[in-house]
Structures are given as C-alpha cells and as structure tokens.
Amino acid sequence: MSITSYNGSALIAMVGKDCFAIASDRRLGVNFQTIACDFQRIFKIHDTLYIGLSGLATDVQTMHQRLQFRHKLYQLREERNMRPETFASLVSAILYEKRFGPYFCEPIIAGLNEDGTPFICTTDLIGAKQLSKDFVVSGTASESLYGACESMYKPDLGPDELFEVISQALLSSVDRDCISGWGGIVHVV
Amino acid sequence: MVGLDFTALESPTLHSGFNDLCIADHGTSPSFSVPPVADFDGFQKAAVQMVKPAKGTTTLAFVFKHGVIVAADSRASMGNYISSQSVKKILEINPYLLGTMAGGAADCQFWQRNLGTRCRLHELANKRRISVTGASKLLANTLYSYRGMGLSMGTMIAGWDETGPGLYYVDSEGGRVKGTRFSVGSGSTYAYGVLDTGFNWDMSVDEAVELARRAIYHATFRDGASGGVVSVYHVGPGGWKKMSGDDVGELHYSYYPVQEAPAEAEMGEA
C-alpha cells in the first residue's frame, strides 16, 4: 500500500455565509487494522484559524507541532494572530523545505479574514497552494469526497445548514472507503 | 488443462445421446480455452497479479451440539475502495448445503454454482443426497486441477447429512480440511478471538447465533476490509435457515451504547 494510505484519513472544509466548517473522520489505522477511533486531525491555531492534516499520522502530528511553534513565535513577535493567507504561505514554505524528503501529509487550512470573510485552501504534500471559493477535500477518500461535495454544496449556507451539508458529504464518502470513518468531527466557525 | 481423471466419478447413464447434449457442459469439469500468447507463463503471472487475490472479508463457521452455524460480513473491497456493502457471501448450494465466499467473488460464485449442479446430478443418479464429504471433495478436486492458475477461493462447505453436521474448509491451493471451527479472511483473526473465548459445545441455537454475530461484528470493527451486514445461518437436520441479517453500524450502537464522553483533551490547548 502507498505511504499516504497507510493510516487512512478524510477531510473537508467548506465555505458558508460569513462562516466556514472543517470536518474530518476519526479513524487511525495500520493498513486494514483499526487502532483508534478518536484520532485528532483538525487543530486550532487560533480562534478563527484551523488546520486539518491528512495522510501519514506521524507527519500529521509533527506538522501540527511545528506550525504551532511557528505561530506562537509569530504571536510573540507581532503581538497579534496570523492572517489565514499568511499562515497558508507559512505551511507551503515549511512543506517545500522538505522537497526531497517530504512530509506525507496534505493540509487543509480554513480561517476567517479580519473582515469576516471565510478563507479556505489546500496544499499538496510539497506545498503547492490551491485556493478555493467553495470547498476543499483531502485524504484517502478524496475522490468520493469531491463527488459528494460537488453534488451537495450550495453557496451562502448558514452555519446550521453548512453543518448538515458537510456532515452528510463526509459520512457518505467515508462509507465508500475501507480505511477512513469510525466517527467524524465538525468545527463550524 | 491439467487434470485428474474424473471418468470414475461420472455417473453411468442409459442414454448416451442425452448425455452428450446436456451433461457435456456440466458432468465433466468445464474446460476453458487457453490464451494463444508467445509467453504463456509471463501472461499468466500478469493475469494473476491483475486479479490480486485479497481475501478481504470475514467468514466463520462452527459445529456445535445443534448443528452448524455459518456467518459472514457483506463488504466487497477493491484495494481501499468499498465496491459493495451488500454482497451475499453465504452461498446456498442446495437446501441442506451452504458455502461461504472469500477471495475472488467470481471464482466463488461460479464454482459453487457448478458444485450445486454436480450435487444435483449425483442425487439424480444415485437417488440419494450427496454427503458433505462428497460435495467438498468434488469442489476440492476441481480446484486442484486449476492449481497455480490464479484462482482465489477460501471457502467453507457446511451441511447436514446422514452422519450429522459436517464442515470442511476448501481453498484454491487445493487444500481440503475437515474441522469443527473455521474462520476465513482478513478479519478472521479478530473473529477467532471472540469465537474461541465464547464457544461452548452445549450452547443453544440462539446463543450460538449471537456468538457468531458478535464475532463477525468485532472483526468488522477492527478490519477495514470487512463490514456491511452480518448474516448468520443455522444448518440443522432439516437443512439451513437464515437466522439474522444485521447492519454492523446498528450492532455497534446496540452493543456499545453512546455514553456522554468527557471533553477530549485537544492538542491545540498546550
């Protein structure tokens, strides 16, 4: 099996009206065996900025620790929180540093700009940023997720409706993937 | 086709003309045409790799005081993709014989249907039902003659005949083993754990069905390649009967109801 499908993961982020939602599955596995059903893939950087990391679990945890470190340092120096676009560039730079021995994870960044407009983007494992206006997906179930999001997504959804849509998209996609699932967690901001 | 000599097993018939018409396709093992390629071995190797025998499933069967219990999940996976959650993995060969499916779905379906045909012919020719021993031997001999050609099957033949309950494990390597407890597939180790712990020869039918259901459920929990619906069959003196078919997700919540979880410690708050 490929290294990115060793642990199994599924992540979505969606844009709503002045809000965003980010959701992931909770399974941690080793090939087909399930090890845990409460694995954390979405991490809060600050109140209006979240990052979700899919792929190899050890790289998920390491990337989170490195990014948290860099953000805290930024907070100390600049005395304010990072903007989502800046954070996305930071993620991209950190991933490209390891261009010839990459972290096997594909992050999704979701946040609110200072004026309240939602921001989402994803990068590949070596840092190529991809901004999106509606939704981004990542993980072993990504093809299923694209299909589900494409059909279920509508622009300008309120927080409650956005929660419903993102949950249904996640659940129906992980039902078609052996190595992700076993629960889900959704953050709506 | 490399083959054993099956002419001894052929039932003698009065009407050879009839034989040619109908039984020609069924009485003998079907012969398949061979691809006319330059590198036959290389082609076969590539073909076997394509089919990729994965045996992603969980099936189990055991004998106890009141007969045989056969249980299986219903998920079909192609690598990581779940191609179906509603595959019938317990195949009804005839009203008193059951076969399970593990490995290549097409292989299992075809050869077990073929087995059903030959069992019926045996009945017609000998005026009595075939024994579980005989049925499993027919299948095993057929599979042995295709050994090395990439068939993938790990099947259990369960039934009730004059000698009582019978259970055999037959696989595509040509193996055939008689036993009282088997589990086959990628989730088999998890099922064995539950099955071996809870087994009691004197169980009632309901207890045995529940044990089988739990064993498959636990296997579907741990094994990513198993899931869907747990089907449990019971084979008694009068033949088989389907006892239950429960969705694994619903079983999870009935066995382990949701409790209020304490707030999970998140990595974000350092």
UniProtKB/TrEMBL annotation, chain A:
InterPro entries in the cross-refs: Ntn_hydrolases_N, Proteasome_beta_3, Proteasome_bsu_CS, Proteasome_sua/b, Proteasome_suB-type
Main function: Non-catalytic component of the proteasome, a multicatalytic proteinase complex which is characterized by its ability to cleave peptides with Arg, Phe, Tyr, Leu, and Glu adjacent to the leaving group at neutral or slightly basic pH. The proteasome has an ATP-dependent proteolytic activity.
Official protein name in the record: Proteasome subunit beta
Main localization (coarse): cytoplasm
Organism: Ceratodon purpureus (Fire moss)
GO biological process: proteasome-mediated ubiquitin-dependent protein catabolic process
Swiss-Prot/TrEMBL keywords: Cytoplasm, Nucleus, Proteasome
UniProt keyword annotation of Cytoplasm present: yes
Localisation per UniProt entry: Cytoplasm; Nucleus
Keyword Phosphoprotein: no
GO CC annotations on file: cytoplasm; nucleus; proteasome core complex, beta-subunit complex
One Pfam family recorded for the sequence: Proteasome
Automatic annotation (TrEMBL), chain B:
Name of the protein in question: Proteasome subunit beta
Function as written in the Swiss-Prot or TrEMBL entry: Component of the proteasome, a multicatalytic proteinase complex which is characterized by its ability to cleave peptides with Arg, Phe, Tyr, Leu, and Glu adjacent to the leaving group at neutral or slightly basic pH. The proteasome has an ATP-dependent proteolytic activity.
Species: Ceratodon purpureus
GO biological process: proteolysis involved in protein catabolic process
Entry's localization field: Cytoplasm; Nucleus
This protein's record includes keyword Cytoplasm: yes
Residue numbers annotated as active site: 57
InterPro entries from the UniProt entry: Ntn_hydrolases_N, Pept_T1A_subB, Proteasome_bsu_CS, Proteasome_sua/b, Proteasome_suB-type
Catalytic activity as recorded in UniProt: Cleavage of peptide bonds with very broad specificity
Subunit structure: Component of the proteasome complex.
Protein family membership: Belongs to the peptidase T1B family.
Keyword Aminoacyl-tRNA synthetase: no
Family matches, as Pfam families: Proteasome (PF00227)
Key words, A-Z: Cytoplasm, Hydrolase, Nucleus, Protease, Proteasome, Threonine protease, Zymogen
Molecular function per GO: threonine-type endopeptidase activity
